Amino acid sequence: MLTNQAVFPRALHDTSDFLESLSGLSSQEDRTRCLETQLRTMGVSSYAYLRLLPTDREVPSFFATTYPREWVRRYRRNGYVRRDPVLAAGRRRRRFFEWDIDQVPDDTPSRQLRVMRQAAEFGLYRGLAVPVHGFEGEFDCLVVPFQGSAVDLGEFSRRDGFALQITAFHFHNSLKRMPTGSGEAGIGPPPLSRLQADVLGWTAAGKAPLDVAQILSLDEWEVRMHIYQAARRLKTFGPVSTVAKAIAMGLLRP
Predict the structure, then answer these.
(1) What are phi and psi of 248, to 5 degrees?
(2) What's the CATH number of domain 4-176, 3.90.190.20, 3.30.450.80, 3.40.630.30, 3.100.10.20?
(3) Chain segment 158-202, per-residue pLDDT in tens
(4) CA distances from 64 to 14, 35, 36, 126 (A)
(5) 152 by DSSP, 3-state: which?
(6) What is the Cα–Cα distance from 94 to 92, expressed in whole angstroms?
(7) Which of 20, 122, 151, 202 could link 207 by a cystine bridge, Cβ 3.0 to 4.6 Å?
(8) CATH placement of domain 194-248
(9) Which residues, 6+ apart, have CB-to-CB distance to 252 below 8 Å?
(10) At what angle are helices 238-248 and 194-204 packed, to 10 degrees?
(11) How many other CB atoms are found less than 10 A from the CB of residue 177?
C-alpha cells in the first residue's frame, strides 16, 4: 500500500508539466484540452467537470465532459445538478472520494438514487470524485467514472487520487483567472504563515510529521497543529488536500 511519503512526491512530479502548460493558456477551450491531455496521461478517458457559482439558481456555469451526449442533455434538461448524489457528497467533503451505485448509503434520497440508476444506463456507475471549494462560494467537482471491471478503482485512488486532486485545484484556479464578463473580482488567497508553508513544503516532499518535526526543530504535535491550521485557512481536510490546494494557489512551489 502506498503511503503519503511515496504519494506526495510522485503526484507533484506527475502534475508539474500540466501546471506549466496550463499557466500559459488563456481560452477556456485550450485549458479544457490541456485538462483532457493530463487526464489521458493518468489513464482517464472519461470525465465531467462541473463549475457551480453561488447564485440563486444552481445552474452549472461551466460544464466540460466526455460523457455520452444523450446523458448530458438529460442531465441538463432535468436539472439533475440539484439531485446528483455525487455532487451532494462532494459538498460535504474536502478531498477526493470513491462513489459506487452498489455502495450508496441506505438513507440516500430516492430522487438521488434515480439519478444514479439513470447514469448507470450509460455505464456511469462507479468512479472517483474530486470536490473543490472556492473562497467566493463557488463549488467545482471533477468526476471520473470507471467503466467495466478491469480497472481497480481502489488501487487508482491510492496511486493517483492525490495527483487528480492537484489537477482539479490547478484547473479550478485557472478558471478563476479567466474574465467572466460579470465584473466578478477575485480575492487574494489567505496567506499561510512561514512556518505553515515550511511544514507543508516538507510534507509535500514526502516527509512524515515526525521527520518534519526533526527537520524544523519542532515537536510532532506542533507539526500536526500547523497542518491543521493551514487546512482551516484553505478550507481543506488533511495533509493531502491541503498541500494540493496550497500548490495550486501558488502558496507552495512544487
Answers:
(1) -65, -30
(2) 3.30.450.80
(3) 888 888 998 998 898 888 766 544 333 344 456 788 899 999 999
(4) 22, 10, 10, 19
(5) coil
(6) 7
(7) 202
(8) 1.10.10.10
(9) 197, 200, 201, 204, 243, 246
(10) 110
(11) 11
